[in-house]
Amino acid sequence: MKHNIVVAIDGTSASGKSTNSKLVARGLGFVYVDTGAMYRTLAWYCLQKGVDVSAAKAVGAACRKWKTQLACVEVDGLRCARLLVEGYFPEKEIRTPETAAAVPHVAAVPKVRDWMKKTQRDCIQFGHLVMEGRDIGTNVFPETDYKFYLDATLAERSARRAADGVNENLAARDRRDSERAAAPLMIALGARVINNSNLTSAETSKLLLDDLRARLPAGSFLQ
Ligand code: DC
Hints:
Layout: E1 6-11, H1 17-28, E2 31-34, H2 35-48, H3 56-65, E3 68-75, E4 78-85, H4 97-107, H5 110-122, E5 129-133, H6 136-140, E6 146-151, H7 154-163, H8 170-179, E7 192-195, H9 201-215
Parallel strand pairs: 1-5, 1-6, 2-4, 2-5, 6-7
Antiparallel strand pairs: 3-4
Helix pairs in contact: 1-9, 2-4, 3-5
Bound molecules: 2'-deoxycytidine-5'-monophosphate (DC).
């Protein structure tokens, strides 16, 4: 278990992390971990329980108390690690505008980040991982040799969000993710930076997979 491999994929919002992380996990036969979903789950939980998400102490207390389990489930042939709350994965609820608005507050609380780091590291029990987030290469698995940072121009990322029917101020989101004191979004030392403004996800994931297949230990991944 100690020798399981972690591919860390960090980057800005709408930089293609989820799509490409899933393609890479499928391509290699690794377990996919969406750490943003974990922060979103805590934000949803706080909203459910009437916890004021702008009150760091209250959010920290809720995170200490909530009853969660990690599970590894197969979705359309892709193994995914999930954080369940009292046995439930709030798949739809974590994507609502209300949860999206609450999550940056929750993600800025140092006690929450400590808890998330420990929980995300525990995912290694499920096998080799492709883990996407904002601080995976800098903070959660800084020791991994397989770090990537995805980015695209603000105009391109805003267009992608709009195409998904989401009207979001990404410049403000970038600022909040990069300027928070606890584990801000940064390019990890040794990360390979891919700007995919002019690339399709097939092209981006091919870059990632070609690089990984050339460097990963033989026999650790699907050919
Ligand atoms: O990737 P996403 O949009 O689902 O992330 C939701 C929020 O959680 C976003 O505000 C950034 C934050 N986040 C974080 O701070 N650290 C992570 N490892 C993953 C997400």
